[in-house]
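Escalated from tier 1: calcium ion holo job.
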Amino acid sequence: MKGEARPYTTVKLKPDAVARAITEWRNTMAGWETVHYDGLEDGFYDQDGVDELTLPLKHRMIWDPVRPCPEMDSKRISAGHSEVYRGQCSAVGFLPYAKFRWWVYTTEPIAVAAGARTRASIAAMIVAHGIGGDASKAGDCGMRVGLSPATTTDPESPTIVWSDWWGVRDTLENERVWHLLETPELIPQVGQVRLWVQCNADVAADISAGHWDEEIVEQYVEESPPPPPPPPPTPDGEVHTIRVILEVDGQTWIEAGEEFTAKAAGVTLTPVAASTLITDVWRRVRALAQRIGGG
Ligand SMILES: [Ca+2]
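Tier 2 regenerated the structure:
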């Protein structure tokens, strides 16, 4: 026989595909986990007994004293209000014909894991229109959500990380549109944070109102990698093909295919079993090559 016999094997078992699947599965195990959720469904109260300062429980409002005090209230499906993002209730801070600035913060510390990436979000919706009695003119009203250590009580504190502003300005395009606002990430040094909502109205429009709902605090959780699952058993009846090509001087002499049915073979085709089969086929190829060489 001239030249060398060069058998190739192709085995339709892909352990690397299994490894990839395990890696992807591990990645899905790590991710953002909700550690605090308040849909503002638990009830409202009058802050300091003032019936025009109706706030969700466990929340408090402060306002810029240079501008008028806004009115705070609940929005309820049961009262025929449509300004609810999810569930039955949302909250609003508003004032007609006036500029204002208000901040609402959560009064009870939100428990988080110290040292973990943390972010907060709300759903926000603004109604702001009517300049000089012209309802087609947009107001100038914006909202944002913030996250701070639980010890922060000053709304101007640099320890608060704020989202971008969402606003109605120059155009009514954003008016009455619920929008999800999300803070940048904060890494709390201790296990307690505070959520903030801010609303500024910079034009004394006929109405300026900032609505919000669904306060969420999330943390990025990296779990220790779980033990890899056992390799999936080969289902009965699944066919695996081991293909051997014998090439001599670039010319294919033999192209033999062997099919192994797991059920028929009585084995689960683990990589080890496949290796045994390959060895067996190799042995036969060698014997064949020797016969050809000897002939
Ligand atoms: Ca709600």
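Residues 39-41, 84-87, 89-90, 213 surround calcium ion (CB under 6 Å).
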